[in-house]
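Journal club prep — side note

Before the paper discussion, L.F. wants everyone to see what a predicted structure for a comparable chain looks like in token form. Sequence:
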Amino acid sequence: MNIPDGVTTAPTLLYVEDDRATRELISLVITNKFPDVTLLQASNGQEGLALFKKHAPDIVLTDMQMPVMDGITMAKEIKQLNKEAKIIVISAHNDTGHIIDAIDIGINHYVLKPINHNKLRAVIGQCMTSIKWERQIREQEKFIRKLSRAVEQSPVAIIITDTSGTIEYVNPRFTQLTGYTSAETVGKKPHILKSGETPPEEYRKLWEIISGGGEWWGEFHNRKKNGELYWASASISPITNGNEQITHFIAFQEDITERKQAEETIKQMAYYDTLTGLPNRHLFNELMHLALAQAHRHNRLLAVLFLDLDRFKHINDTLGHTVGDQLLQASAHRLKECCRRDRDTVARRGGDEFIILLPDIDDVQEAVRVAQKIIDAFTQVFVLPDIELFISTCIGISIFPNDGRDTETLIKNADMAMYRAKEQGRSRYHLYTSSMDEQAFRRLTMENSLRKALQREEFSLYYQPKVNIKTGQIVCLEALVRWQNPEMGLILPNQFIPLAEDTGLIIPLGEWVLRTACAQNKTWQLLNYPPMRVAVNFSPRQFQQPRLTDMVEQILGEADLAPCWLELELTENVMLQNVEKTVQTLNRLSNLGIHISIDDFGTGYSSLSYIKKLPIQTLKIDRSFVHDINTNADDAAIAIAVITMAQSLRLNVIAEGVETLEQMKLLDGLNCPEMQGYLFSKPLPVAEMTTLLSNIKWPDMTWKDPTLH
């Protein structure tokens, strides 16, 4: 009896790819390597499915991402039509979720983009080989006894046993794969390959199928002679005689270790953060779900800790993403060191945010101790390859069941508690309280109202004079925004400006303030009041907006106000963003003739070297140093230092928050020429400020006489 070669006709291959150039190139590669293959082509999954139904090709090679119908959807449909169809998926590295779907539905192979032609040829060759042997298995009743010559040359490992499972034959590929020679295996059972990692019930199920005349397909995690583990895709079939009696069993094993390792890599990408190696958000949520189920069942406490790294964005922006990545890796390691229980989970939420799960704790203090341990650990310097850094963290804590009974609520409340900790300073933790929900609701309500306030014209400007006490003249009016909300009443800047900063609404609001203040100053000039500057505050976020100078110049043009009558007040923190860009922008503004001053001087991150670079005219002593200047020697010393530095740099200096005659006299004695505060005038709306300007006897008015206040 002649031994059939297994594949009597050349296989048919269906290639599905939406990109025409790629389809033509890969088709050429296939036909050159496999000239006998019948090649069908389709441009999307829907066309591919139609061709499969019509021609029943042996192999399907498909791209993953396509219009109309993607490759995974098409593959699912094909597997329902023919579960033995060989499907090869071509995918990009970032198609992790789809690749996992592909693995789940039984895709035979996948090739990562950019396509390695040798790899693709090898994969197609493997599929063709598999097709060949599958056809041989189906025909085994006719030729199994004369199969020896073919199996000797087989690229897959073959084992033939008697009906009791004793090995009678192994082919050379079996020896290459396992390390066992024929002499070492014949007469033994296949359990010499067992690793102990395949469940016993899988073997019982296998034996039931093949002893009943069926064919078994599956995977083994086997062990080689040298102890090395390997994965094998196997099929085991009974061999019958002419009376349909089972005489032997034949097993085909293909080494799929490389494929399984690739699958593990993909799962690692799906469930773990690639930078830190920590569980990612998806895996954390799954672990959280399991932990909550246990906590429900056993009536135990569970804690969620939410944290991020203070000033991380500044470090990332100024020192570069490489240093930022190194700091995140070092932080992840330090967090794991602080959470040493096997059941604790430290995960990276994204960016510089981390989240920690502490299941099965005895009391709230156990979570507090971990939080404090983390805060203490972060007080130690981070030694990175090229730099040493200090960075702090704030931590929010929520506890199951009091602070939430599901994953989303517990994480949300821990996040909310973290922001409360940040409001109190750095290196702090805060336990969630129900009152935070009320505050969060108030904040959300205010945010929604704030978004509509500009459209509804709810903002207005108040003005407070800056006075030169040597001449008795008002030299500038500072524009201060107020919000008159119909439901909440008059809202002061310290209540809504931080919210405007967080939401980005500070950009349109700041532009409105600048435009309104410039127009009002021009109006006072047209009423023949002596010209004076109007001062407008700019936050760091406003200052970083693109084309800032063009916007300022345009508004001055619209108001027909000369640039010399505009003063921009900036905080010292503006210099932290980008010194080079800051200096460039300020030079452009100064060259227009705009007056530049540094507000709240002494409270930020000032550097004398930065101050010297900036084209500024005025330093403004913060009110916190003025309030107790008569009784606090430190405040007086700071005021003296600022005044002395300003004089040495030939800068003007002004003190804000002057409320008493004693404060004014002391500052006057320190040679501080300009002041601002309630001693002279509180912030006034436009109408009242206009009345005040009308009542001043220019230029003889002297603000030194308290009877005039």
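L.F.'s comment for the group: The CA atoms of residues 482 and 492 lie 6 Å apart. Keep this in mind when we get to the figures.
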